[in-house]
Write a structure and sequence with these properties.
Length: 272
């Protein structure tokens, strides 16, 4: 069963097009209400909501979310045909999953607050499946591929992690998960071949535990003194969890560097 909070997030997205923006390292809420009537409608919706409902995994619906990974595109609104999915998204935003009826649709990405289309993509969304529309690349070459997400738990005792590289400035990289109590020098890259822009590694199963994510230029001989493109905080990954880690550019620094956006594909804490 999903918690009431998770259900609220999805229903807000479905009815009002808001994006629950998970932007590292802090979480911000971006509902994107267009009118006072929408806000009033939300109050009525929440008043009628039971404490616990099941939406994820429902075989009669598909689910779709948006990740904005473009370093220079304007804020965006996203539509399924003419129906809004999310408003006013920016770099590093990950929306909650939005339930939609299965079928074949065109997803349109517009400049926020306008009907100026920046890019569109078409896809077929199947019963009981989850998808990510990944808006990336520079604004002049904007793209929006549709990724099929893993909607079931990782194998027993494992966590499933997928790396998607949307960093345009750093070149190919090696990505390490350094286990708690270990060192970078003793770790091996998640993928033996360097990860370049537009690479999707697919899901890689690793033992559940606490890890620090480290990113270095590909081919770097790592040691305790290696200068990294990114070193994250230690994160505990529970058994069964499924995560997508998106590498994006840091646009506020002069030298190329990376931020990592984490998207929850499956969270065992919300099941049961």
């Amino acid at each position: 069963m999903r918690t009431g909070r998770s259900v609220i997030k999805r229903l807000v997205m479905q009815h009002f097009g808001g994006g629950f923006a998970l932007k590292s390292p802090e979480v911000r809420l971006s509902l994107g209400f267009k009118t006072l009537a929408q806000a009033a409608g939300l109050a009525a919706l929440l008043g009628a909501l039971p404490g616990c409902q099941s939406i994820a995994g429902n075989p009669s619906v598909s689910q779709i979310r948006i990740i904005d990974a473009s370093p220079d595109a304007p804020a965006i609104d996203v539509y399924q045909g003419s129906s809004p999915l999310a408003y006013n998204l920016g770099l590093g935003t990950v929306t909650s999953y939005v339930p939609i009826s299965p079928g074949t649709y065109t997803v349109n990405v517009d400049q926020a607050g306008t009907k100026q289309q920046l890019v569109s993509t078409a896809g077929t969304f199947l019963n009981g499946s989850q998808y990510t529309v990944l808006v990336g690349n520079y604004a002049a070459s904007l793209q929006a591929p549709i990724l099929k997400d893993q909607s079931q738990a990782a194998p027993s005792g494992d966590v499933s992690i997928r790396i998607v590289d949307q960093s345009l400035k750093t070149g190919a990289v090696d990505v390490y998960l350094v286990a708690s109590g270990s060192t970078l020098a003793g770790a091996s890259p998640l993928q033996p071949v360097g990860i370049a822009f537009n690479t999707n590694t697919g899901y890689i199963d690793v033992p559940a535990g606490t890890y620090t994510l480290v990113v270095v230029p590909t081919g770097t001989k790592v040691s305790s003194t290696t200068a990294t493109l990114y070193t994250g905080a230690a994160v505990a990954y529970a058994a069964g969890a499924v995560r997508t880690l998106v590498l994006i550019d840091t646009v506020t620094t002069a030298s190329p560097s990376i931020q990592v956006v984490t998207a929850d594909d499956f969270d065992p804490a919300n099941e049961g």
